[in-house]
Write a structure and sequence with these properties.
By secondary structure, the protein is an all-alpha fold. It has helices at residues 2-19, 24-42, 47-81, 83-94, 98-116, 121-132, 137-147, 159-162, 174-201, 211-232, 238-256, 272-275, 289-309, 312-315, 320-338, 345-375, 378-386, 393-408, 411-429, 433-450, 452-461, 468-497. It has one domain. Helices cover 76% and strands 0% of the residues.
């Protein structure tokens, strides 16, 4: 009975958002109140605990809102100034195939941003970027969320692995956790580009000479780079290096190999999708290509420079996501000046502020819910119940990792919560702790695909707030396919290929 009560808040959220398609703002508030009630009744919840975790949840949501606010301000500046139109033209010189640009921005560029900043930044930047280029908002959201299911095991400068598994470093060294997660993502990367195209466009998305080779080649490049860096260099540079190498690979491939583009996949086909969100029309020749791209180029430089040169204790004074959001916001202001559109700043800020209020309510409620579940032992009870699976536990560790990310909103939170549990289970079941912790970290990354907090955040940046249920429903299948594959690989590694790795 206790286990059923423990899992009921998760069921509440999923049924409300996905099943009944109620707006996340309403569902999250109701689910939070429900969780508070059952924590008092069945899990020794106290007024002090609720008060403390309520404050922590709202504070964490405010930090995440900094990222969304900065991203939304930048997007508004780019749209209203007309710079996005120029970028659209510029990128068409790389390829006029929207499938190529989708992979370039969501898959490759998103990995770089994850490594540079983490904290949910990739989807918040990549999705509105794609919308600004003319992609349908739902396509942009789905591609960005699925793509973020790989590099999140490492996060900004490797924090998800380094800090997330720091509590078990005496049993599972950081490099072991980094390596074993990479063993799983190596194969995930091979299929994700093709999965994205099939999900968005069906089999017709693979039509045209050269596109299948492109998707497989880019997936292989991404996977091989991630594998090498995670196994032989360390978690700090995994996502960033993978993103850079993959971006270069995309550009080289389209230069060397002719990709046949059916008329349905020319970039201009969906350009109208963003036109109704742009209130100012400016001729595309107002800017040079470099000038139009400058805000994103500055961001690409600023995020890693600050992350690797400013002490972490300074960056985390007001929460890790806060500095990321502040940098994006400042770059948006600088970008507006470079684009000679400083007069658009007040309107861009107003648009961004109005857009984040509903997201703040939903995200804050869900984080309060997750904190209460964690501190009252509900999450631990769920995970320990799953550990009764015995020899199948390696596969379940992937799903436990996803559960942690689903509720906490990050792979970092999932790793902190469940890494000690996996070490304990490994001892009881005579399994390899490094593989279990790495599998959970990989599963936590996949959990970012369906995590309500991430979905709310990215939906806000592309004006799809209220469509969270539809988004989760659409990305649930690719998440499940990847989680099943990772679970099978974890079983293979634990019982057959590498049962004594690192022991």
């Amino acid at each position: 009975m206790s286990v059923l009560l423990a899992i009921s808040p998760i069921v509440f959220v999923m049924v409300g958002i996905v099943g009944l398609k109620i707006k996340a703002t309403k569902v999250s508030l109701a689910a939070m109140l429900y969780t508070i009630i059952i924590s008092y009744i069945a899990f020794n919840g106290t007024a002090d605990l609720i008060k403390t975790q309520g404050f922590n949840g709202v504070y964490s949501a405010a930090q995440t809102m900094c990222v969304i606010f900065g991203a939304f301000t930048m997007l508004s500046v780019m749209r209203l100034s007309g710079a996005m139109d120029k970028i659209n033209v510029t990128l068409s010189h790389v390829s006029n195939d929207k499938r190529v640009l989708l992979i370039l921005i969501a898959f490759a560029f998103g990995a770089f941003i994850e490594g540079a900043a983490g904290a949910g930044t990739p989807a918040a930047i990549a999705a509105p970027f794609l919308v600004g280029l003319g992609f349908h908002p739902m396509s942009a959201v789905m591609a960005s969320l699925i793509s973020n299911g790989l590099p999140s095991s490492y996060g900004g400068a490797g924090l998800s692995t380094i800090v997330g598994t720091g509590g078990v470093v005496d049993v599972v060294p950081t490099m072991n956790a980094s390596s074993t997660a990479g063993w799983l993502h190596l194969f995930g990367a091979l299929i994700v580009p093709t999965m994205i195209i099939l999900l968005l466009y069906g089999k017709k998305g693979l039509q045209g000479k050269g596109i299948k080779g492109f998707l497989l080649s880019i997936g292989a490049t991404y996977g091989a780079t991630l594998f090498v860096i995670s196994n032989f260099v360390g978690p700090e540079l995994v996502s960033m290096t993978t993103g850079v190498v993959t971006i270069i690979a995309v550009i080289i491939y389209v230069r060397l190999v002719k990709i046949e583009t059916p008329i349905d996949f020319y970039v201009t086909k969906e350009k109208k999708a963003a036109s109704d969100q742009t209130s100012v029309t400016i001729k595309e020749d107002k800017f040079s290509a470099l000038q139009a791209l400058s805000p994103y180029l500055i961001l690409l430089i600023a995020l890693p420079v600050i992350r690797f040169n400013v002490p972490l204790k300074i960056l985390t004074v007001y929460g890790y996501p806060t500095w990321v959001g502040l940098v994006i916001f400042i770059v948006a202001l600088i970008g507006a000046i470079i684009l000679k559109s400083a007069k658009l700043i007040p309107e861009s800020i107003k648009i961004a502020f109005k857009s984040i209020i509903p997201a703040f309510i939903a995200m804050g409620s869900l984080l309060v819910l997750a904190n209460i579940m964690n501190k009252t032992g509900m999450m631990a009870l769920i995970a320990k119940t799953l550990s009764a699976a015995g020899g199948f536990y390696p596969a379940l560790s992937v799903f436990i990792g996803s559960l942690g990310a689903f509720m906490t909103g990050s792979t970092l939170g999932s790793n902190i919560m469940f890494a000690p549990l996996h070490v304990q289970a490994a001892s009881l079941l005579n399994l390899n702790p490094s593989i279990l912790v790495g599998s959970s970290s990989a599963g936590g990354a996949l959990g970012n695909i369906i995590c309500p907090n991430n979905v709310i955040a990215v939906a806000t940046t592309v004006n799809l707030l209220g469509s969270e249920g539809e988004i989760i429903k659409k990305v649930l299948k690719p998440w499940f396919i990847l989680a099943l594959m990772y679970g099978g690989l974890s079983l293979l590694y634990s019982h057959i290929l590498f049962p004594t790795y690192g022991m």
